[in-house]
Write a sequence for this structure.
């Protein structure tokens, strides 16, 4: 298999399709990313509560890190001087960074937007920062990210069509500037353009076509999973998909639930990231073959069974529900550690199953089977 | 070596002495405990921030769990029904439990002491509990602890001689009752008597002699490391030591700093427990060959070097000070996880070094050498 041969360029290979669903791999100098891929989120250079060895063992080929958080702490220039983000956090696989724009909009204060970029104050200490398309790419380059994102403006939904159009067109101009700035970076890295346009089909199509004309090595779909119903999100994917080049990876940003992932893969998405498995793990919620299980629930207090005895993840297989419930109730770190591990493992196995199913032309069956497991619900309550 | 031969009884074997310092091993059906031994504290059935696999890898042969915390949550009867503490928390080595008395005194509210025992309200939910010598031993038995402690009354220092005498004599009467209650438990477990008597030498001697007459399989020294100067603690150990049987293990409860451990080993102590390595790890403090290192300090922000490149613990060897500093500043779980791991490893290696040195008759040199490392201090600040 060529996926693991060392390469010095970035490329995408489509191995099989099944309806709109696709499987293949992205090749990077840091290693291959099997698609569809779920990227665990390592916001501040750590996937909260996990050792990177564990992240690798779950099956993750790539992790995401947040430009906004890292530019504030410890600072991009500092990480560069320390040898880059891979060595800093001890992850030698590919890393994808966002542009920082989304967190600037959601976390910082005193924002001022202009054609040039955005100025804001840090949510940590109030320090003043400037962010432009060029600076975002420069920061991502200092971090050493293998896959980088253009700076874009992500509007909140719902919004007026005019507002969606203005932000989408600004994002297109920023895409051009990002692309020029990115040319200074070493070979083998990739910059993705981001499709915007709110919930307006015509704007989404305009954005996708304009970006496709710019010939990016990959395309993100942004501005979704921001509170809209799932059917709106899926409709937007269906709208955009025909206008994206077949031979480039497609990344749906910030999505989502296991069901969102399955439905988006069915519509041609190749890459995902979301804090859901990690954040839920810190809040006592486990994602399993049997659906979501809330370990805070007192019904687990006397249950000696693991979350899933057939799993090959120790967190799912080896620890009793009674113990997990106890750890959660006592707010012990180990509870967050184990449930985060279990959830990232579940997300990665969900994608591994999707890849195998697409390759064998049975993706619809796979989706039905997985959803059937969720619908049957958790195994019966332990009677003691 | 007979230390690892399965046994069905509890015994202590002295292998070598060097001055008052001793090395040997405690045999239990769950495995051997090499002495001098440091026991990591797993208060609520978890050594905070560590997997038990890691605890084992640091060299720990035994861990401590707190009866008070476990009787409140999840409850001793519940743990017994789930198969006991070993299986509940997934640690198959020996476990030592305290009596719960110390935490009743320091954490609970509305305490009422009598000859019979103590009643109190839970600090978690205000629930009402009764604790007697018999109930403490019953709880420890339900947990399945390999080494159990008699219920005692631990007075705060300083206190009057009368108060120290009253509490010590009550503890002796409770020792008798605990011993009788313990007879119901399976073979191979051990109950330790606890020497009390405050900072009054005559009371300490009276307590030690009376307990020795009762012929316990091991002896604890309680009521120290409660705020008194180190020299008071060491003087009390020297006072008590000649009155404890040579062929029984001696456990100094709740102690202490690395220096406390070295000095106490020199005075004939075999076993220790303390929250210091774990609690300090959650507060950015690392114990190393070079003394204590506070990772919050900004001087680490650009330092690419690990805490100790010669260590065989990944937490000390593989992660840069810059990264640890960053994790601590961002209050990331992984910072606590790594520093706790590093500290428990350091404590265990300190005891491993002590065992080897005593066996070779060079314990004084070992102490001097270790203290010299601390005194030289941390390796010079990174200049960039």
């Amino acid at each position: 298999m060529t996926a693991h041969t060392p390469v010095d360029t970035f490329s995408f290979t489509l191995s099989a399709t099944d309806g709109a669903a696709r499987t293949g791999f992205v090749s990077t100098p840091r290693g291959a990313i099997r698609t569809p891929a779920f990227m665990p989120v390592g916001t501040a250079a750590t996937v909260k509560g996990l050792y990177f060895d564990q992240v690798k063992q779950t099956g993750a080929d790539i992790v995401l890190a947040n430009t906004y958080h890292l530019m504030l702490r410890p600072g991009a220039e500092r990480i560069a001087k320390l040898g880059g983000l891979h060595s800093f956090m001890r992850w030698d696989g590919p890393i994808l960074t966002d542009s920082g724009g989304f967190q600037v909009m959601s976390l910082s204060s005193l924002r001022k937007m202009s054609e040039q970029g955005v100025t804001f104050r840090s949510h940590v200490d109030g320090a003043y920062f400037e962010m432009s398309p060029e600076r975002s790419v420069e920061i991502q380059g200092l971090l050493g990210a293998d896959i980088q994102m253009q700076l874009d403006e992500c509007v909140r939904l719902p919004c007026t069509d005019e507002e969606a159009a203005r932000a989408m067109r600004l994002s297109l101009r920023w895409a051009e500037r990002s692309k020029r700035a990115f040319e200074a970076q070493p070979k083998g890295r990739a910059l993705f353009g981001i499709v915007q346009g709110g919930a307006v089909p015509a704007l989404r199509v305009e954005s996708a076509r304009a970006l496709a004309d710019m010939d990016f090595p990959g395309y993100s779909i942004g501005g979704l999973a921001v509170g809209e119903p799932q059917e709106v999100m899926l409709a937007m994917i269906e709208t955009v998909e025909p206008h994206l080049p077949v031979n480039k990876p497609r990344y749906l940003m910030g999505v989502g639930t296991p069901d969102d992932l399955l439905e988006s893969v069915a519509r041609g998405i190749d890459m995902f990231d979301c804090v859901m498995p990690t954040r839920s793990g810190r809040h006592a919620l486990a994602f399993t073959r049997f659906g979501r299980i809330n370990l805070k629930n007192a019904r687990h207090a006397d249950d000696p069974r693991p979350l899933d005895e057939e799993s090959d993840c120790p967190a799912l297989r080896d620890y009793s529900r009674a113990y997990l419930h106890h750890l959660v109730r006592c707010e012990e770190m180990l509870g967050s550690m184990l449930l985060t591990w279990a959830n990232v493992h579940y997300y990665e196995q969900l994608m591994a199953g999707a890849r195998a199913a697409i390759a064998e032309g049975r993706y619809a069956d796979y989706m039905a089977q997985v959803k059937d497991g969720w619908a049957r619900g958790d195994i019966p309550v332990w009677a003691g």
Q: What stands out?
A: The interface with chain A takes residues 44-46, 48-51, 69, 73-74, 78, 81-83, 88-90, 301-302, 304, 318-320, 322-323, 325-327, 329-330, 332-334, 336-337, 384 of chain B (CB under 8 Å).
